[in-house]
Structure formats: C-alpha cells, structure tokens
Amino acid sequence: MALLYGSLYLFVESFPLVFVDIYHFSLVEMGVAYMGFTAGCIFGYLALYIFQTKFIDPKFDSDAFEPEFLLPLNMVLGWIFPLSLFLFGWAASVPWMLVELSLFLFMFAVFILFQISFSYLAMCYLCHVASVFAGSALTRSLFACAFPLFGTAMYNDLAIEHYPVAWGSSLVGFVALGLSVIPLCFSSTVSL
C-alpha cells in the first residue's frame, strides 16, 4: 500500500512534465486532465460493489467467509497497477487520450487495492487492528513524504527524448510488478 501511495504522489510530480512540457496544456487544462483519476475512482467503486454483492456477501450469509476471499480481486488488479505505470510512461508523445487511459487504469487499481487491503488487514488482525492501521499509515506517510523529494530528479535523470517519464514510471512499475505476486502467496489455499 505504501508503494501505491508513493506512486500517487509521483503522478502529481509527473503531470507538468507530461501535460505542460509535451502536450502544452495550460494549467487549467492540466487540472482537467485529473478527470482520469475521477473516472477511475467511480468505476473502481462500481467494480468493488459488484465484487462485494456477487462474491463476498454470499460468503458472509453462509458463514463461510475467510479474509482470503478478498484477495482474488487484488490478484487481478495487482497486474493492472504496473500496467498503468508502464502505459503512462511510454504513452507520452502519443495522443493524450492514451495517457488519460493510463490515469484511469491507475486510479481504478489503486482505489480497489486500497479498499481490499484495508479490509483484509482489519479482518486478519481483529485484536490489533489499531496497531496494524497505525503501522500501515506510518509506512504510507513515509513513502508519500519521500517520493516527491526524488520524483522530479528521477524523471529528469532517466528521461529520454520525447519520453520524459518513461523510465521513471517503468522503474516504479517493475517494483510494483514484483510486489504483485504477494496476494498469490496468501491465497494459495482458498478458492472461490
């Protein structure tokens, strides 16, 4: 979750590099570009609602619920998150709608991954949920504090011609790709 939070702050650092420097958006137009995030949240909420009503609620009703039943959604979206980072990095210099698609996919994955991860932690550590959430908040806050400090420098140092955020986003995407196997480790014994 800390990487998700840090990546969200990196996006804020990379927006001027992409939308102002490449697409020559004004500040108002760059602000409107955040609508990809809004659409991602809305569709993420809808997907989470469908998952909740179709898969989780019947498990609760039959008293067969285990926290690991939440993880299949994380397994799918764990791959969409790094895909959105790669798409964002390498789609700069092509029509800006593809970059908006990457923002949509990014926020769609981040929204659901956050919700599922919070629910999973709360259900696994019922007696220590306050400590678990405090530790989670600490690591998320440290990443959120650190990522903007090196974000612009990382993008500038790894930039190549016509792709100012390609390798910077890919670097974070490779780390996210490595971390996306974690839900597979926790859910190897549970099936829907």
Structure description:
This protein is an all-alpha fold. The protein has a single domain, classed as Up-down Bundle (Growth Hormone, Chain: A). The chain has 8 helices and no strands. The longest helix is centred in the last third of the chain and has 30 residues, at 129-158. The radius of gyration is 18 Å and the shape is globular. The two termini are 24 Å apart.
Give a quick rundown of the structure.
The protein is mainly alpha-helical. Helices cover 79% and strands 0% of the residues.
Q: Overall 3D geometry?
A: globular
Q: Class by helix and strand content?
A: mainly alpha
Quick one: CATH class?
Mainly Alpha
Largest sheet: none
Strands, count:
0
- The assembly state of the depicted protein chains is single chain
Which CATH architecture would you pick? Up-down Bundle
What's the order of the H and E elements?
HHHHHHHH
The averaged pLDDT comes out at: 88
> Can you tell me the residue ranges where pLDDT is under 50 for at least 5 consecutive residues?
none
Fill in the CATH topology: Growth Hormone, Chain: A
Our count of domains comes out at: 1
- The total count of helices amounts to 8
- Please state the CA-atom Rg, rounded to the nearest Å: 18 Å
Residues in helix, %: over 70%
Beta-strand percentage range: under 5%
What's the N-to-C terminus distance? 24 Å
